[in-house]
């Protein structure tokens, strides 16, 4: 039996207050969907089985390139982070796995596994960090890591990734995500070809150490921290990496790592088509890699991404099991509330995509009927699927209104009393 950080009777009491209204809303939506030939129970079951991993770093307060303003009751380390992650899963029943970041979350693997087991949490993909320097490391990553001109620095970065794999094996992870900040800020600073060759060679060393049942996810980003060029700048380069490394290598798509107005859903379709979609870092953005809450800026784009995922699911694409993870930075909100909201918005996009009339859409596409094809998508997107989401949470033991229960619980005030206040930070995202 998992430990609960919020009293279950509080969840039950709040659910009892909302149960009558939810039942009426769920039945009304069920009748509406039935007229379309959609079984609401089938959709609810699929939504209840859809999970997204939360990032350990996401429960802390983020920042900008200019400053970081600490939040109240910030976690002091990985074990506090896991407590916060357990609250998110308790209320949403959508986030049973946590994605760790090393060295930020480095701890005894046995203790990590025991803590996760006690809280009913598993561990998703491991995340390495060679984009910043850790205390005491021999070589700096100021001018790159896996693509650095210095062989000893590259070796250090490879060894760090191998350490992440070993920690992951001990706690039950099955994947490694590698994102590097390598790149250049001035024309001529780096030789594009040689730096990419060094990166591929270093990644090949990491790939060789992967257990047979693991996957490695390479992550592209157009710019930042390097602004003139990045070594892994777009999905095409990412695809080349995955193809070069081998069958256990896949591409990870972060929704904030593209140029404005990029057709991300088409990138998703291409990677699915050629068997190299590894997974996602879900967030949202207005101008760049804002790391905002999922669905907070462009929920329709999130829906369109899920439309491609459900299409692949509907077609029975072989070996299709992308990893779903959140990657956000919370500067002005309570991180737990933002992650609760994001988990629900991701499930919302999935539920809406399940409502798309695939047969009708295919017919309109074959007939080149652009208007009706678009309207078919919009009809599914416009559906208020909140009763489905709430009912899926309720049946699994979660909260009908998770943020209301979280606020009523006083959890943030409680941990603020237990955890010393952080000193104000300088520049830096984390």
Descriptive report:
The chain has 430 residues and is an alpha/beta fold. It is built from 15 helices and 12 strands. The strands form 3 sheets. Strands 3-5-6-8-10-11-12 form a 7-stranded parallel β-sheet. Helix 9 links the parallel strand 11 (277-282) and strand 12 (323-326). Helix 5 runs parallel beside helix 6, helix 8 (264-273) packs parallel to helix 9 and helix 9 crosses helix 10. The longest helix is centred in the N-terminal third of the chain and has 28 residues, at 8-35. The chain is globular, with a radius of gyration of 22 Å. Residues 425-430 have low confidence and may be disordered.
Order of helices and strands: HHEHEEHEEHEEHEEHEHEHEHHHHHH
Helix content: 40-55%
Biggest sheet: strands, sense, closure? 7 strands, parallel
* Lateral arrangement of strands in the main beta sheet: 3-5-6-8-10-11-12
Structural class: alpha/beta
Radius of gyration, rounded?
A: 22 Å
Low-confidence stretches: 425-430
Shape type: globular
Distance between the termini: 34 Å
Total DSSP E strands: 12
Proportion of beta-strand residues? 5-15%
Count of DSSP H/I helices? 15
